[in-house]
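Technical note accompanying the year-one report. For the benefit of new consortium partners, we illustrate the data format agreed upon in the data management plan: each record pairs a sequence with a structure-token string. No post-processing was applied to the example shown here.
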Amino acid sequence: DPVVSWTLALELFDVLARPRMRRLQIGQQDIDDLFATFGQLLPEVVVQVEIRDPDDTVVVGAALAGRVDAIVTGDRDFLDDEELRSWLLRRGVEVLTPSGLLDRLS
């Protein structure tokens, strides 16, 4: 199941509003409707662990808020950071590559 946080949602809002996204024919009303529908479900989580790329804090927060089993990523900042991976694992969240997830599922 996909999981999102307020910070990720606001980033999505910013991306969808960019001029190059017009080719997807996503209008402002579509974006507003998306936030009106899902906004009430978005949690806010404070993450208290050092993360190599501060921009990844929102991903960690969403994973914790959503009580996910895994973060699936190819991002080396997640995959190579043993301290972060251990911290997440103690909270029940594994960090997997897409191929690692496929291996796990098969």
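Partners are asked to follow this layout when depositing records. DSSP finds six helices and two strands in the chain.
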